[in-house]
Design a protein that fits this description.
The chain is of the alpha/beta class. It is 31% helix and 19% strand. The radius of gyration is 13 Å and the shape is globular.
Length: 108
């Protein structure tokens, strides 16, 4: 029983494909509209360390919100993956508050 939004997307991608870990549902929907496979963690501090094991077959990219809690989110998630020896990439979006704002700004 996880609280990972769009968790079933893992059934649609292959091993070694990228999976993006976002903060919240709107960013997952934006990722989908951009053709990016993503899951959402509901709340910056709600990533359960054990969830890292669900993602071992994929390349992990974290897209945190551009605020203090987003930074903490990225650190917590990255630390969980480091414990199991899985490298991650953290993508920091400049000049926007989150992936949704980034997508909207690109579509103007």
């Amino acid at each position: 029983n996880t609280h990972i939004y769009n968790f079933n997307v893992l059934n649609q991608i292959g091993k070694n494909d990228f999976i993006y870990i976002c903060e919240g549902i709107p960013d997952v929907l934006s990722a989908y509209q951009m053709g990016i496979h993503a899951v959402g963690i509901l709340g910056a501090n709600n990533f359960n360390e054990e969830w890292a094991n669900y993602f071992t077959d994929y390349k992990i990219r974290i897209i945190p919100d551009s605020d203090i809690s987003g930074n903490e989110f990225a650190i917590v998630v990255e630390k969980a993956f480091r414990k199991i020896g899985k490298p991650v990439q953290i993508i920091k979006l400049k000049g926007v508050k989150d992936l949704t704002e980034y997508r909207v700004s690109r579509c103007k």
